[in-house]
Amino acid sequence: MTYLTTLYPKPPYHFPLLLDVLSRFAHPTMDIVQDGAYWRVVRSGDGLALLHGAPTGALHHGLALLRVQDTGSLEQPELQVEMMAAQGEIDSRHLERVMAHVLHVEADRRAFIERCRQNTDAWRVVEPLVGLVEWRTESLYEALMQTIIEQQIAWTAAQKAQRWLLEWVGDGLDFQGQRYY
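Above: the chain sequence. Below: its structure as tokens.
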């Protein structure tokens, strides 16, 4: 395990609520919740890496398995990113940018929240979700793959299809007896 960076999302940012949402996926593919953390494999050039932190250095090519843990609070969010495994050469700055993008750390939700507070009906709906992260896909290809598959079949079957596609492509990392894509 190698420490990569600490991300500081704009508050409110409720990372445990995101983990709760993601943990409900019947057949998770790329966004994995395990041991109270978010896990994801990120491509960095031609290789793979397992992130729960990452090594520093110049431009590399590889895959990294990243692990993201909440070390802050709703109003003072901090996300510690570590690289857990890697294959090939890794560009740690690229990994940081990808995780900041996927976890949408730059989103400022405060104006929306304040507007909802002014409307009782809206606030009843929004209040339990304050700080919920709108996580994003790493690439347009990933977004299109998920959208097309999920529109064609039932959601749990779509998750199985996404897993099958990732297994077929073969890019993944093994870490402590589990395969990550």
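The longest strand covers residues 79-88.
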